[in-house]
Amino acid sequence: MSEHKHLNWPLIIGLPLLVFLTSAGLALSSILRQHPELAIALTYDFALTAPLIYLAMIWRTSIPKTTAVPVFVLGLILASWVLPVHLQGHLAGLKTYLFPVVEVGVLTFVVYSARRAMKTYRKHQSGQLDFYSATKMAAAELLPQRLVAPFAMEIGIIYYGLINWRRRELVANEFSYHRKSGTPAIMGAFIFLILVEVISVHILLAMWSHLAAWILTGLSLYSGLQILGMARSLAKRPIGVEDHILKLPYGIMAEAAIPLDLIDRVELTSSRLDPDNPLASKLSPLGELERHNVVLHLRKSIKITSLYGRKREVELLALHVDEKEGFAAFLEDKKKQLGL
Q1: Closest CA to 13 of 44, 52, 57, 46
Q2: pLDDT (tens digit, 9 = 90+) per residue, 151-205?
Q3: pLDDT at 125 over 70
Q4: Are β-strands 239-242 and 174-175 bridged in parallel, bridged antiparallel, or unpaired?
């Protein structure tokens, strides 16, 4: 934080902004009408010069290097606004060829960094770091903080939905929560309904517009992939204790980390939570669609991270655990060992 305070922000932001303003001024002036060949130079000033200057300014700082990507995108947008359409030939080429390369490059680097983080962690620690957690660690070094959770979730959806189909075996002191909850069946029903709906709607829309039909079909199929990735992530991220912290993931949809000394008691119950208590909540973002069988009573409130990084404050946390008695006994034994 102290390093960020000592950064020369006026220079870091000012130089790329100066390039943008100068280029925009030339593009909107009569000079471009008299010398249309300048459009090529202005195009590359918007798309390359400004982002590269910004990248050079932050290169030796802790600012994520990938923040140059939004500067690049902003340059493309500004160039699209101020350059005459008939002079956007090179701009169209950058959008078609360079922009996808930048996107794939960032994605590849994050996935590579996530896998490297997993290997390093497993080499030096006794615990297991899953792909989603490693992706968040890697993304935190590359992206602004508020983009970390949404970015990691989108990567997790693709990874768990399409790539990682290997069975995840539980190790000692890990607990599953998906086998007896019925949640995978509910999500499977949602996917089935999406597939049925997309076929019928596609046929109807195609009578009016083939483009609209395929756009809606693509969006629906991606929604199905999202649900599939979320459902499959439940089995990949079990509950466990690590370094005196109870890790409570709910796939990639929610997670909480609770120090064991904050757990007052573990109640085995399926009773409905008090709807008037704002600090009583379920771990699962599915709410009443999934019944709980464990309630953790905490000594003080904590924050749960939910879908796409949203936060919820809880003091009573309800969740489902397949082996609830074993889970409760394990926590009690662990707390006794620690003298809590």
Answers
A1: 57
A2: 888 888 888 988 888 888 888 889 999 988 888 888 888 888 888 888 888 888 8
A3: no
A4: antiparallel
Other CB atoms closer than 10 Å to residue 152's CB: what's the count? Answer: 27
14-43 pLDDT, tens digit each: 899 999 999 999 999 888 888 888 899 999
Neighbouring C-beta atoms of residue 183, cutoff 10 Å:
23
> Tokens at residue 200, please?
């019928």
CA distances from 165 to 6, 114, 119, 266, 283 (A): 47, 18, 19, 33, 25
| Other beta carbons within 10 Å of 216 | 16
Interatomic CA distance for residues 118 and 138, integer angstroms: 10
Query: For residue 309, how many other CB atoms are within 10 A of its CB?
Result: 16
Q: Which of 256, 195, 196 shows the shortest CA–CA distance to 227? A: 195
Length of the chain: 340
- Whether the predicted model's global pTM rises above the 0.70 cut: no
Instruction: List, in order, residues 6 or more apart from 221 with CB less than 8 Å away.
Output: 194, 198
